[in-house]
Amino acid sequence: MLQDPLTLYKLIILYMLNRVSFPLTTAQISDFLLEREYTSFLTLQQVLSELTDAGMIESRSMGNRTHLVLTKEGRETLVFFENRISNAIKKDINAYLHENEFSLRNEVSVHGEYYKSTSGEYEARLVAKDRDVNLVEITLSVPSKDTAAAICDNWQEKNQQIYKYLIEQLF
Fold first, then answer.
1. What angle do CA 93, 99, 104 make, to 5 degrees?
2. How far is 115 from 120, CA to CA, in rounded Å?
3. 35-79, pLDDT tens digit by residue?
4. Helices (H), the chain
5. N-to-C CA span, the chain
6. Which residues are registered as beta bridge partners of 138?
């Protein structure tokens, strides 16, 4: 049975979001679909927009990333139409999620953003989460935008070491 390719892409995204216990970023979903040449970037943007407009996924901006979460409506839609995704595609998705689970989870669980405070300084706000629980949240005031940006970048790479250090020093 032939089906509309846009419908298949939507179902793939719903299936991916349903297979994880954490949000995925648009970049993570894009990486999967574009690297395997399922679709083009512009078509993917259209599909994400349509899923959001239909209330099947929620889009949440966190710093410079957009996190996607499956809604109740999206889950219900997937239950009815999941059989339209071939077993080969499901296997591909499951393998990708299994092989990359740690990095995918870490990428959406660690946030660093900076902003100019009312005092004129810059503040770097750093958060590490596990599921929806903040493990650590740190706000550092620094004199320059460049320093704040560097802190946020380094947080992405060194958050586990910093968290471990804090736990060792405080307990």
1. 85
2. 10
3. 999 989 999 999 999 999 999 999 887 666 788 999 999 999 999
4. 5-18, 26-35, 41-53, 72-81, 87-109, 145-170
5. 61
6. 126
Helix (H, G, I), strand (E, B) or coil at 127: strand
Strand 65-70 to strand 110-116: parallel, antiparallel, or no bridges (unpaired)? unpaired
Taken in order 85, 80, 27, 43, is the CA torsion positive or negative? positive
Q: Look up residue 106 and give its amino acid.
A: N
The model's pTM: 0.72
Q: 16-34 burial, b for 16+ CB within 10 Å, e for fewer?
A: bbebeebbbbbebbbebbe
Pairing relationship of beta strands 122-130 and 133-142 according to DSSP bridges:
antiparallel
